[in-house]
Design brief:
The complex is a heterodimer. By secondary structure, chain A is of the alpha/beta class. Chain A has a domain of 77 residues. Chain A is built from 21 helices and ten strands. The longest helix of chain A has 20 residues. Chain B is an alpha/beta fold. In chain B, the strands form three sheets. In chain B, strands 1-12-7-4-2-3 form a six-stranded parallel β-sheet, sandwiched between helices. The chains are: A alpha/beta, B alpha/beta. The interface between A and B is large, with 70 and 52 residues. Strand 9 of chain A pairs antiparallel with strand 9 of chain B.
């Protein structure tokens, strides 16, 4: 397995091309479509919920340092120990020191993107500690020596046959390709690890500054086990997970679970306020909370601050037409999909994932899906522009109007704006780039019915040429090399409509 | 929002059933105790039955005495080998702090005599719910929790352990109990 935020190697375009050509992956990804439609029908979010949650997240970001100080004081008051880590290396060292002090042989982990971000598992394994991922999806990718491809369902890229084959490498004999049986086997196989582990490591979904309560959501119960049975519980918390008040969970928690899985509340929610208390029979003796910065504070006050409002629900991945086709590994980053395309270059200050913001059609589905109203498409456009300059990415304080709708955005030096204004194109500034000329010509042709008919007829002629024709269009090769257009039907929509209206063809 | 004990009870029953929880009652306290004994004999024949003795209904209904009278091995926190025996117990019996009708959630508060793992390690979790402890909404429950000192662990249980990691199809029984039963007590 490769480690760090991003593995080096091929470009996103190459990885995406391979992903689309992988029939097993495409078969596995169909489950995302099915799940999305059924889940949304169960528990959707309302605009009011989103507005309220968005406001709560911005309230915290407006004074992140202040809320972190309050949280630290509260955690200390309830008996937890707070550690502050500026870098992933700092966070790894803090956890390694605790593991050494504890003489830990086995550590059980519940799913945490933050631990992936700092590559904690590999660091612990390198000193001989057995690290067991206990979320079933995480366990599957751990055994397969891969990384999660989705922040909520890490093994979404695998079919049931593949999963059974992977788990079989840890079983005494063949495993049936049957879901209940595989779940039961996982229960029996991993239970001893929970019972013998000296340390449980988790992430944090929300940390309430006023009460020092950390909240963790799971469905399988592995999160509860990791935070209940081992003597020491270490929670790794990216600093933006802080929320102002315990009461804010009433808004944020249902919003997270509805957006993530369509559940009105996840199956298990653990609200932990300090370690076990005197004479309690279980719960950890020690609770350590590690605040992870990793360039997050550098984003506060910049145009990119909004990405810190993210609650890691995965909704933007689920609706993204790019993610749904290529899956998480194509991004070659811990955080994939729309939020990952933004967060990866930012957390690495432009060292990693520079081509990721380009991996988007800017359709805006992510922005619409985001339960905390992060203008993801806006941020992608801005990041593309900022990453055009070589060298490290140094986010600057936010200019006014950052959160304007995407239609109003104009990139510096590019002369291309999304045509959402009511003004005729002719009144816009003269075209300066090839791209602008192409779109300008297209717009003029399609502005008249005759032009539209002529172009459609021409496109159908183009349909006589083999697949991949769009990649060979001259002048805009940089843009078309990784894109294709499906071949048009030989007959126009108008012709087919007329045939059916007249009864010559059946509907 | 639903109000009134009967409406809240119906609403909770529907939400719990949707979460794959087996719901019994509402029944009288005496009948509830007898029901618990019957389930203990069914789920843990000859084995340990773990109980959280400090939970209000468990104490008020004398569940520990009823179970002992029926000849079951009752496993209590503080018993020798509690930690080692808990994972092998066939059933965990708890009460709850409150139940949420809207989401079908059982809120369990950890404290002395109410450990976290009784509802977690055994394969079956049986939870006694007083109909007076049902609240309509999750936000209402959070407001109640925020108004008092928080326990070391406040756990919200929706139903049996489940995963979406196998081709995104809900599959029951991973790390937590594969069966959750609720007895509503009038």
């Amino acid at each position: 397995m490769t480690h760090g935020i991003v593995t080096p190697g091929e470009s996103f375009a190459e990885r995406a091309t391979n992903a689309v050509a992988n029939p097993d992956l495409q078969r596995a990804l169909r489950n995302l479509d099915i799940r999305l439609h059924t889940a949304r029908a169960v528990a959707d979010t309302t605009p009011e919920m989103k507005d309220q949650a968005a406001e709560l997240r911005r309230e915290v970001l407006a004074d992140l340092d202040g809320w972190l100080d309050t949280l630290e004081a509260s955690l200390t008051r309830v008996g937890a120990t707070v550690h502050r880590a500026d870098t992933p290396a700092d966070a790894r060292r803090i956890v390694l020191d605790l593991a050494n002090r504890e003489g830990a042989h086995t550590i059980v982990k519940s799913k945490s993107m933050a631990t992936e971000e700092i590559d904690l598992g590999a660091a612990l394994e390198s000193v001989g500690i057995e690290v067991v991922e206990t979320d079933l999806g995480e366990y599957i990718v751990q055994v397969a020596d891969e990384r999660p491809s989705h922040m909520i369902t890490p093994a979404i890229h695998k079919t049931l046959d593949q999963i059974a084959s992977v788990l079989e490498t840890r079983a005494d004999g063949p495993l049936p390709v049957e879901r209940e049986a595989l779940a039961a086997w996982t229960h029996d196989h991993l239970r001893p690890a929970f019972l013998r582990a000296e340390i449980g490591i988790s992430g944090v979904n929300f940390a309430a500054a006023d009460t020092g309560t950390i909240t963790i959501v799971t469905n399988e119960g592995n999160g509860r086990l990791c935070t209940t049975w081992p003597r020491v519980h270490i929670a790794l918390m990216p600093i933006e997970k802080v929320i102002a008040r315990f009461g804010d969970l009433a808004t944020l928690l249902p919003l997270l679970t509805r957006s993530a899985t369509g559940q009105s509340l996840s199956n298990y929610v653990s609200m932990l306020t300090g370690p076990r208390r005197d004479d309690e029979s279980d719960g950890p003796d020690e609770l350590h909370v590690v605040f992870l910065d990793h360039n997050r504070k550098a984003l506060v006050g910049t145009a990119y601050e909004e990405i810190l409002a993210c609650i890691r629900c995965g909704a933007c991945l689920n609706v993204c037409p790019v993610y749904r086709k290529v899956s998480g590994h194509a991004y070659d980053a811990v955080y994939s999909g729309p939020m990952g395309k933004i967060l990866t270059p930012l957390l690495s200050l432009g060292e990693e994932g520079r081509d990721l913001p380009g991996a988007s059609s800017l359709c805006g589905a992510c922005t619409e899906a985001c339960p905390v109203e992060i203008p993801l498409a806006d941020l992608l456009v801005r990041l593309r522009a900022d990453l055009r300059a070589p060298g490290p990415l140094l986010p600057l304080p936010a200019p006014a109007g950052l959160t304007s709708p995407i239609g109003h955005h104009r990139l510096p030096g590019e002369g291309f704006a999304w045509p959402t204004s009511q003004a005729p194109l002719a009144s816009r500034p003269p075209p300066r780039s090839t791209r602008h000329m192409v779109f300008g010509a297209w717009s003029r042709v399609w502005s008249s019915p005759a032009g539209y008919r002529a172009s459609a007829a021409a496109a159908r002629l183009g349909g006589l040429s083999p697949s991949g024709w769009a990649r060979r269009v001259p002048l805009v090769k940089g843009w078309t090399a990784t894109r294709d257009l499906p071949l048009p039907d030989r007959r126009s929509f108008r012709a087919r409509w007329a045939a059916r209206e007249s009864g010559a063809e059946r509907w | 929002m639903v109000s009134g004990v009967a409406a809240l009870t119906d609403s909770l029953r529907a939400a719990l059933s949707a979460n794959r929880v087996v719901v019994h009652g509402p029944v009288t306290p005496a009948d509830a105790a007898q029901h618990v004994v019957g389930r203990a004999l069914l789920h843990s024949p000859g084995g340990d039955v773990a109980v959280s003795p400090a939970d209000r209904l468990v104490a008020e209904l004398g569940i520990v005495d009823h179970l002992k009278a029926a000849g079951t091995n009752v496993l209590l926190p503080g018993d020798v080998g509690w930690r080692d025996r808990l994972s092998a117990a066939g059933l965990g019996v708890t009460g709850c702090w409150l139940a949420v009708a809207e989401t079908g959630s059982l809120a369990l508060a950890a404290r002395v005599g109410s450990p976290r793992a009784v509802s977690l390690l055994p394969p079956v979790h049986l939870c006694l719910v007083a109909v007076d402890d049902i609240v309509a909404t999750f936000s209402g429950a959070i407001a109640r929790a925020a108004g008092a000192p928080l326990p070391s662990a406040l756990t919200w249980v929706g139903g049996p352990s489940r995963t979406g990691d196998l081709e995104m199809i809900q599959t029951f029984g991973v790390h937590g109990p594969s069966t959750v039963e609720v007895v509503l007590v009038a």
